[in-house]
Amino acid sequence: VHKDHRYFKPSGSFSPIGLATALGIGVVATLVLGLVYGYALAWIPFIYINFFIVAGYGFGVGFILAYAGKLGKIRHFGLMLGLGFLVGLLAEYVGWVAWLHAMSDQELLILDPGELFRGIKLLAASGVWSLSSWTPTGWALYTVWGIEVLMVIGLATVMGGSMASEPFCERCHRWVENKDPQGPFSPECITQELVSDLEDEKYEVLQSLASCAPSDAYVEAELNHCSGCSQLHLMTINLVTIKINDEGKPEKSEQQIVQNLLVTANVHESVKELAARPPGVVAPELPDSEIPS
Ligand SMILES: [Zn+2]
């Protein structure tokens, strides 16, 4: 059971200007990407590539929105998810309008949603593309389009919320992005008590962080702090595993042991000292957890 108050938590704050910024950029990006999307789907005849175009569209629209939310300093996860959903809906609409425009050699520009639906119905009856000798029509085609809708809106929503919970200094009113990875440390420091001890500010457990030579399993401590006020210090601890995959290539996977734990400047200094120590050297005393930074 985690002690929530010991971790960074987004404040949920945002301003009307921030909201307008995020929405404005999100809408403009969707209009531009939607046009590219419609023409790409119409002009690229390979159904398999179209799958990636659909995924890329939803991802791209959501990613730009997430960045716009960061620019607008929106620290509200639910709000960004909601904006992602709205932008995803708009993306579907723009995508259909642009696609029909491209498919009709620029003859059709149907903006009215009701008319758009009627046009789609007509297309579903006759079919629009073929896979080998199969030309899906009716429900088969609606199913394909349904998957497309779910992918675009789903990805836009998930991506939209993806950056809203990142560390933010409410004192300096800015995102905290001084990520400073330290390590590699030997994985033996990961014990059952490590997380609860760190949550209880028993930072002496960090003495078990012994630097090690790079290997296929190691621990990385990611330090992050606000350089504006030097009042906010965070620590994330990852267990990194490198496996050789089926293609014989190394694949890195990370397991988060703690994420954005609230610590002190002293803890940061100690972790850096431990990381600089050559492997096998005994760790020095760590500062008492009660000393304020
Ligand atoms: Zn600050």
Strand order in the largest sheet: 3-4-5-6
Q: Determine the structural class based on helices, strands and strand pairing.
A: alpha+beta
- Report the span from N to C terminus: 27 Å
Cα shape: elongated
Can you characterise this structure?
It is elongated, with a radius of gyration of 25 Å. With 293 residues, the chain is an alpha+beta fold. A hairpin with a 4-residue loop joins strand 1 and strand 2 (174-175). Helix 1 runs antiparallel to helix 2 (47-71), helix 1 (16-43) runs parallel beside helix 3 and helix 2 (47-71) packs parallel to helix 5 (138-160). Strands 3-4-5-6 form a four-stranded antiparallel sheet. Strands 1-2 form a two-stranded antiparallel sheet. The mean pLDDT is 91. The longest helix has 28 residues, at 16-43. It is built from seven helices and six strands; from the N terminus they run αααααβββαβββα. Bound molecules: zinc ion. Zinc ion binds at residues 169, 171-172, 226, 228-229, 231-232.
